[in-house]
Amino acid sequence: MTQVFNFSAGPAMISKPVLEKAQSELLNWLGQGTSVMEVSHRGKLFMEMITECDKDLRQLFNVPDNYKILFLQGGARGQFAAVPMNLIGAKGKALYLNSGHWSGMAAKEARNFCELDEISIVDKDENGVISVNRTDFSDIAEQYDYVHYCTNETITGVQIKEIPKVGNAVLVADMSSDIMSKPVDISKFGLIYAGAQKNLGPAGITLVIVREDLIGHACQATPSIWNYETQANSDSMINTPPTFAWYLCALVFKQMLAEGGLEIYAKRNEKKAALLYSYLEQSQFYRNYIAVANRSVMNVTFSTDNDELNAKFVAEAAEAGLQALKGHKVLGGMRASIYNAMPIEGVEALIAFMKKFEAENA
Amino acid sequence: MTQVFNFSAGPAMISKPVLEKAQSELLNWLGQGTSVMEVSHRGKLFMEMITECDKDLRQLFNVPDNYKILFLQGGARGQFAAVPMNLIGAKGKALYLNSGHWSGMAAKEARNFCELDEISIVDKDENGVISVNRTDFSDIAEQYDYVHYCTNETITGVQIKEIPKVGNAVLVADMSSDIMSKPVDISKFGLIYAGAQKNLGPAGITLVIVREDLIGHACQATPSIWNYETQANSDSMINTPPTFAWYLCALVFKQMLAEGGLEIYAKRNEKKAALLYSYLEQSQFYRNYIAVANRSVMNVTFSTDNDELNAKFVAEAAEAGLQALKGHKVLGGMRASIYNAMPIEGVEALIAFMKKFEAENA
């Protein structure tokens, strides 16, 4: 089989050693003669596995002791609803920072559950270049129960690299598409959430890291599977959790620790992105429309000036084993998602293909 | 490795050919060089897979054309909240039939989202035998937007074998623990839902079968991932679905069709349960406390008169390869869950062990 590199924005690549381990024990987990999918989540072995998963994640991501880690269902989209249900309190209002599609969707969903103000924090200049224009909200943030933003907009490839300033307000981040791509000072956040299907594991499980003092204030009309207090008191098991997805996340964390932790991943991710953006910068054929300061390390968007050429690029790349390079339908063009599991060889192969395609079509 | 039989109540056994198929293609799905976990849910191959899954399920479970099939996240517990959000309408009130733990939990959760009346429909006689005392609600049902019940109480092993009469009211069933164990006249229901982890596949995906005229009436405060209209209009993909769990369900349906469909499963399930209940009936050592008419074909509960003996039974059975026979903590004793994937050999092995244990301990 030809070497394949999968640039899917999510569900995305999973590290090969993790998949191989899962494959090898799929019918016989820990010598029990059953699949990890078939055992009770309340059984001794599964409980041991999730305890170790919590420990590994705390070590890897440097999660402070006063934060709870929850593994929930419903995706980031579920948290779009769950966050206001759990965090709206005395102030009765939240602030949403809009940096693109996903942060906008978060605000749209939240409007069904709370009052909110929404501020656009991106500009597009006369050449179509998008940049983030504001990250300091310390003058207004404390009027709100929380301030919500998205650290990395998967569709455009806009990443907010400095943590917004919000004074003593509670900062909430949707980190779905760049979580654990680098070390983060978690103490700056009240709550972090992320769908697993980019950097953590397969689709169907959602990580929530929440400061303990923010737990216990959910409104009555909070579905119990999303009530942070109920779930924190039940090891994220008030109902049957997505056990296989959780197990895979646990394997991913072990793999990341074995490879040396987030510093190593951060360096590798920076290197991959730098290779690709440097190539794009010097090209007259491909363009990226994100300001240098906000270029995503995870999702690199680019396009030619011609929709037909873009379609041809995507099709020929797929034939060459470079899969899923089509941009999101709301933006068009191309997008290379180069999450943690993408090796540098994948980026090198992509650049080689881009050069060849440019030579043939420019 | 010794032959193991896993009597877990859920997550439960998955058919071995399904697990073997998943294992064989875990790193290379359909020759793509990637795992099914790593590909976009909106990609051509995944879309083809779910289209076929819908078709297979319609054929297998005889789903009428005026019903939509949704695959959602959040488990049955999520639907405890989603059902009132979507179905409460002009009448402003629902009726919940309480036959044990899970139907009671459904009502408890629903109270956060709607007004409801709750009627206990089980009796316990002087010997502790539980029976269902009422299934005709046609005199009162039409006052309510819907009538909710649970077809099979997993903890006690109480199964309601005749469909409750509700006149022209909308009947909603939590079928989590007996779905697709036998053919069902779906036209009698407005909505059926089930967590997958007993008869359909792994934990982390929830099947909803809903009559089309009931779609489109969700209240505003319905999280979009549970809005039946939004999901029905988006192939259950308004956010990233749990792709691997969905894929496994699709494999289970194919396997069931290959084995001859639900009639075959129904006969096999009846035979397995009859073997076990006949043995329990003649025993002076083990007791089952469910009236004959309501004995579950899926979850067979039994116990000795002695808690220590029960614990010894569970431990020695596990050593003999008969796993997860401990009863739910709210009931104690033993429980053998014998879902679709449990072969008759598992039940025979259990009975042989029960005889041996009785001989040694009576």
Q: CA-to-CA gap between the ends of chain A?
A: 31 Å
The H/E string of chain A reads EHHEHEHEEEEEEEEEHHHEHEEH
Question: Could you give a short account of the major beta sheet of chain A?
Answer: 7 strands, mixed
Beta-strand content bin of chain A: 15-25%
CATH class of the largest domain in chain A: Alpha Beta
Considering DSSP H and I runs of 4 or more, what fraction of the residues of chain A is helical?
25-40%
Q: How big is the Rg of chain A?
A: 21 Å
Shape of chain A: globular
The largest chain-to-chain contact, stated as pair and per-chain residue counts, equals: A-B, 67 and 67 residues
What's the CATH H-level superfamily name of the largest domain in chain A? Answer: Type I PLP-dependent aspartate aminotransferase-like (Major domain)
For this entry, what is the oligomeric state of its chains?
Answer: homodimer
> At CATH's second level, what is the architecture of the largest domain in chain A?
3-Layer(aba) Sandwich
| Total domains of chain A | 2
What's the average pLDDT of chain A?
97
Strand neighbour order, sheet with most strands of chain A: 2-12-11-10-7-3-4
Derived from helix and strand composition plus strand pairing, the structural class of chain A reads: alpha/beta
